[in-house]
Specification:
mainly alpha; 3-stranded antiparallel beta sheet; two-stranded antiparallel sheet; 6 helices; extended; SurA N-terminal domain-containing protein
């Protein structure tokens, strides 16, 4: 019974927050927010996976704080303008204004602008170091179904447990086990 409760808790979310894709310093990033953000941005950012989007949602607040501290912060309107510009390029002029971007998509747009701004800061290496230090000091927990947050500031895809065997894997017998009899 205890095992079932523990496993169920791991699958439901993290840090006791059901439906969380990640929890960062007590702030939950819901699986719904991740899914909505991924769906809204998918057509415009080809090749980006759910783990990429989750990594940005996890780290964006830290990059935004560092940029603001250095006087190169960006606001939500600038992020929306960027997203609409990208949508216009992909779909045609004026189409970006028709799309409603949610808070997660705006955070991704803000992150993109902030990273560029930090590279233009008077001391970009110091800005990057400060950003990395803030992320490293944070309490970040990723729901195992999405993977694991790494020191490289990415969400690595989940690994398949060793006890799960894919259907196309060649069966192997334990050492010393007799070969099965052929079937007629």
């Amino acid at each position: 019974m205890t095992t079932t409760v523990v496993v169920g808790g791991l699958l439901a979310g993290c840090a006791g927050q059901p439906g969380a894709a990640a929890v960062v310093d007590g702030r939950a990033i819901s699986t719904a927010e991740l899914a909505t953000t991924y769906e809204q941005l998918g057509p415009f950012f080809a090749g980006a996976g759910a783990q990429d989007v989750l990594a940005v949602l996890i780290t964006e607040p830290f990059a935004t704080e560092v940029a603001a501290d250095l006087g190169v912060g960006v606001n939500d309107q600038q992020a929306l303008d960027l997203l609409r510009s990208v949508a216009d390029q992909a779909l045609g002029e004026g189409e970006g204004a028709r799309i409603e971007f949610g808070p997660g998509a705006v955070a991704v747009g803000r992150y993109s602008l902030v990273v560029s701004a930090l590279q233009e800061a008077p001391d970009p290496q110091a800005a990057a170091a400060e950003y990395q230090e803030r992320v490293a000091a944070a309490d970040i927990e990723v729901n195992p179904r999405f993977g694991e947050f790494t020191d490289d500031l990415v969400v690595a895809p989940p690994t398949t447990p060793s006890w799960i065997v894919s259907e196309d894997a060649e069966p192997t017998l334990p050492d010393g086990a007799p070969e099965p009899a052929p079937t007629p």
